[in-house]
Amino acid sequence: QDILMVKEKKSPATRKTNFLSLIFIVVVILLISFFLFAFLVFQFERSYSQKIYPGIRVDGILFDGKKPEEIEKYFIQKSLPFEGIKFTFNFEDKISTLSGKELAISYDSKLSAAQAYSIGRSGHLLSDTYQKWRAATVGINLPSVLKINSDLLDDTLDRLATAIDYPSQDALFKFENGKVTLFRIAKSGRSLDKKITKQMIY
């Protein structure tokens, strides 16, 4: 007995219905994904409101989830040992001394806190998204900045330079009537190198 296999043909209306169903499912999945992503972003931003984003370091120290005030406090404490430092500048019998407290040496805590907090908060969506992604994946490390009373340092070095510096002198010969009436030996000058002296402190 022969068995005939008959392939059912779907009507155009059925195919259209299946296509629309597929489109509907795809749209629903995309909407669910969008709202889920939006919810996660909202939760992330709420968790780090007024806080440093993940992966952000200052001088290699991770401040993930810290408030800017905590960064300020950290660098204020880190600056305290500078007060006990003493710098002695001496050349021959010329001596001058300055303390770290007099020079007001300290880390710029407010600047470090502001820079760390500003990452991912420029107000530009693409730039902020990239910065947050980079910080979370590879990390962002910011250098701290050291402050010093440069005016006092400059005044001190100027006073030392007044006592140390003198110009060079060329040799001088003066003849009158076949005789040397004036003779002076050449002398090399000297001066305080303020730039190098500052580099030794910084």
Overall shape? elongated
Q: What is the percent of helical residues?
A: 40-55%
Q: Compute the gyration radius: what is it?
A: 37 Å
DSSP summary: helix tally:
6
Return the average pLDDT rounded to an integer.
Answer: 85
Distance between the termini: 103 Å
Strand content: 15-25%
What is the H-and-E element order?
A: HEEHEEEHHEEHEEH
Task: Kindly state the number of beta strands.
Answer: 9
| Major pleated sheet | 3 strands, mixed
Quickly give the structural class: alpha+beta
- Taking strands numbered 1, 2, ... along the chain, how are they ordered across the largest sheet? 2-1-6
Provide a descriptive summary of the structure in words.
There is one protein chain. The strands form four sheets. The protein has a three-stranded mixed beta sheet with strand order 2-1-6. Strands 3-4 form a two-stranded antiparallel sheet. Strands 5-7 form a two-stranded antiparallel ribbon. The longest helix is centred in the N-terminal third of the chain and has 36 residues, at 12-47. It has 202 residues and is of the alpha+beta class. The protein contains six helices and nine strands, in the order αββαβββααββαββα. The radius of gyration is 37 Å and the shape is elongated.
